[in-house]
Amino acid sequence: MAHGGRSETVRARPMALHLRSAGRDMRCRCVSARPGDRHLEALFTSTAVVALAEIGDKTQLLAIVLATRFKRPMPIVLGILFATLANHFLAALVGEQAASLLDGRWFRYVVAASFIAMAAWTLVPDTFDEEEAKPARFGAFLTTLIAFFLVEMGDKTQIATIALGARFQSVLPVMAGTTLGMLIANVPAVFLGNALIKRVPLSTVRIVAASLFLGIGLWLLAQTAGIV
Question: What are the residue boundaries of the structural domains of the chain, listed by start?
Fold first, then answer.
C-alpha cells in the first residue's frame, strides 16, 4: 500500500508540473495578446475620430480646391497621403513622448480635458482661404504635399492626433489610424468635390464627431479617477 501511494504521488507530480506549466503558457499568451489588442484599439479609435472630425474641416476644403484647380485626383491623393503620414507621425510622437515624460495622474486629466475641449472645437464650422493652397507652380503632387502639411499644422485633426498619441502611447497605430481616417474623408472629396459637401449633413457629422471626442474624454476621466 505504501509503495502504491508513493507511486501515485510520483505519477501525480509530473501531472501537476504539466498543469502549472500549461497555466503559465496560457498566461503568457494572454499577456502577449494584450499589446496587439491595444494597438487595434488605437488604430480603430484613431481612424473613427479623425474620419469624422475631418468632414467639413479646412483640410477637406483644401482637397476640394486642389481637385478643382488641377483636375488630377491621383497626385492629389498621394500628396494628402504623404503629407498626413509625415505630419501625424510627428504629432503622434509628440503625444507619446509627452505621455512618457509627464506620466502621472495630473497628465491623464490633461489628456482627458483635451478630448473634451476637442468636442467643443469640432462643433465650430471651419473656413478656408484659397490663398493657403499656394504655391501652384510645383504641380499637383508637390503643391498638395506642401499645402496639406502646412495647413494641417495646428488643425484640430493634428491636435487630436497628439491627444491620441498621449492616450495610447503608441505612435505607429495612431499614425496609421489617423492617416486612414484622413483618406476616408478626403479621397471622396477629391473625386466628388463640392457635391460631397452638399450631400453630407455637416452639422450631424460634427455632432457625432463631438460626441465621440466627448465620450473618449469622459471615459479617460472616469478611468483616471478610478470610477471605472
Answer: 43-225
